[in-house]
Amino acid sequence: MKALTATEAVAAIEAGTLTAEAHVRQCLDRIAEREPVVKAWAHLDPELALAQAKAADAASAGVLRGIPLGVKDIIDTHDMPTGHNSPIFAGTQSFGDAACIALSRDANAVIMGKTVTTEFANRHPGPTTNPHNAAHTPGGSSSGSAAAVADGHVPLAFGTQTGGSVIRPAAYCGVVGYKPSFGEFSRVGIKMQCHSLDTLGLMARTLDDIALLRAVVLALPPVPVRRDGATPRIGFCRTPIWDDAEADTRELLERTASSLAATGATVVDVSFAPPFHGILEDHAAIMGFESTRNYADERLRNPDKVSAELMDGLTRGLDVPLERYVAAQRKAAAFKAHVDSLFDELDVLLCPSAPGEAPKGIEFTGDPRFNSIWTLAGTPCVTLPAGTGDMGLPLGVQLVGCRYEDDKLLSTAAWVAARL
Amino acid sequence: MKALTATEAVAAIEAGTLTAEAHVRQCLDRIAEREPVVKAWAHLDPELALAQAKAADAASAGVLRGIPLGVKDIIDTHDMPTGHNSPIFAGTQSFGDAACIALSRDANAVIMGKTVTTEFANRHPGPTTNPHNAAHTPGGSSSGSAAAVADGHVPLAFGTQTGGSVIRPAAYCGVVGYKPSFGEFSRVGIKMQCHSLDTLGLMARTLDDIALLRAVVLALPPVPVRRDGATPRIGFCRTPIWDDAEADTRELLERTASSLAATGATVVDVSFAPPFHGILEDHAAIMGFESTRNYADERLRNPDKVSAELMDGLTRGLDVPLERYVAAQRKAAAFKAHVDSLFDELDVLLCPSAPGEAPKGIEFTGDPRFNSIWTLAGTPCVTLPAGTGDMGLPLGVQLVGCRYEDDKLLSTAAWVAARL
């Protein structure tokens, strides 16, 4: 049986043809079948999930009506452990819920369990495999969320992005990933890596589901994805690292740009102004300076329980001078204004979601740089599944919207998705 | 005996004429004497403080050499409860240390205890009184930190500012308060109210102590406060709410501007451009929108344990439309650029630290608006003690520096302080 989207399940529950309990049981069955291979879950308590589903059925209300939701394991839940994929936090349980969890519960979501993250949403990987081919990474750091949504364990999941931790794994696993405009979603109860970059993001199998969960996290009424909008003006932005994309990805993007133009969209080439060609170095400086201080407690009180990979990054972060950090912050502010200005004449930017398909092996979760650019810009981003690459694994195309115009981005993405 | 500053105590400890243990005992004696009236401490464990002091004496190292530090009770400590002045959190203890605590311990500070905060660093007050007159508020929300530093309980303390929660209580209590440039200090482990505004700040009795603790929190070598700088160019910024300041404060500022000009400083009047005259409304929109979502867990799971005062504010926050929030964020970005531009020709801005002396009674912690402006601007700010007002309570003058030029602000403030 095909897994239902959240929107489909909500409609069926509201129509009385499905109960939240039955739907959650279907999802739990799918997990039981697939988890030995996919390994998407850091914590799963079927009884607790079913109890929530029964309560949602009894309440017979809420935007999410008992729909199950996967939660990246750096996001606090008062009734489940939050492990951060770190021996430091193994088995610890937070006192409260993260704000996004509290708001989801208020909409009668079922908090299904905690999905595998890389260590502290950084690089050191967890055990999750790509559901399309277990010999490949699902991407990271929101590895389990992407794999669980792709594999039909849950229709919705939370991830977070500091570099490319939502859009990249979503693209690798062939689902829709969404990073909102910086600042709109609360980060309370989410382990902080870089306060200037960290963004809560969403994963689902459709744009309509993304819009639904966005409304829940904003504590606002859902804004339906419009499909009657004007033909969009699209900027094809190869970014300064275009040459680092693999051939199949470059071809996908060129083909997509051409075919969208053929369907009537305005498509123009867009480049960053020269001062911003090295913007990824500024992202790295900010991430290094902030993360080594933000992880001070782990680094100083439990150095033996931090992976060599992370400790190396934190140590390098200490080498970023304050002056370099400040210069990067000033450059980032100018970059945000520059990217904003690109939207004076455009509705959306088109660029790769990742350099290519999910790399082989699960040790390396892939290159985040096609996403880090936009995390720094603070723009809303969506990745849409767009076929497969040379190895038969999913490829995505990334659409970037103007800051604070997230609803418009989702509607423009729907226009594009209908023509992919 | 006059209480030592941190700089004095470090020097004496390094010279071998004082031990950290003896110094901490002096501070504990002072607390024992005064706490029944001042009520600055939410949690104090003298044995734990002395154990830390002995360890610091044994280590004989670190920038802070066993100097005791007061910690606002919304900042996590792994070995003491963090109560947030809320029945929701009474007696709860965090798993880890806040980053600023971990970095302070790394410098061999003694974490003396937790200082009284208003409920969640919002408005609902704690029991702390003004050490200069117990019938008056010490200000808030960092009430206990300001009172403890002013009254000689500790030479250093952490506070936080979302509106005016560091600069105002510091001014009311007659100490030096400092809010750094937004983004430089880690906020990990500090209860989040508004991610666009919350700033960790410092309180001490001298600028040298501020510079010392700033270095510790940045994990960088101390930058001494320079006293050999050029005569500063000062902008006298009355702000759009000048008429709301009390007469003695307006007179203090006018007199200060005149006397600094008389000592050779360039002093010019500075005003915000007209689009920013209502900037406080944008601060309020951002604070309302963010705080009601950031406190979702408290508001939704424990509504009966949230004060009526806070719940009222959070409910009003839900009325701020997303569009209003976005407009406020765009205005804030333009305001930051505008304030930055004021420093093309100036070194520092001079303005009130608060509308006047500490109000009578402890129910109302005072008006934060002279600070909220600069919290939104992201600029570094210092308040310096500057005599007393009509009721005999401390008044302060606030100096505002260019974003990311905190060291320069502290040195300019020293120039000003020498002439007050």
TrEMBL record, chains A, B:
Region described as Disordered: 121-147
Sequence ranges assigned to domain Amidase in this UniProt record: 24-410
GO molecular function annotation: catalytic activity
UniProt cross-references to Pfam families, sorted A to Z: Amidase
PANTHER family listed in its UniProt record: GLUTAMYL-TRNA(GLN) AMIDOTRANSFERASE SUBUNIT A, TRANSAMIDASE
Family according to the record: Belongs to the amidase family.
Name of the protein: Amidase
Organism: Enhydrobacter aerosaccus
Origin organism lineage: Bacteria, Pseudomonadati, Pseudomonadota, Alphaproteobacteria, Hyphomicrobiales
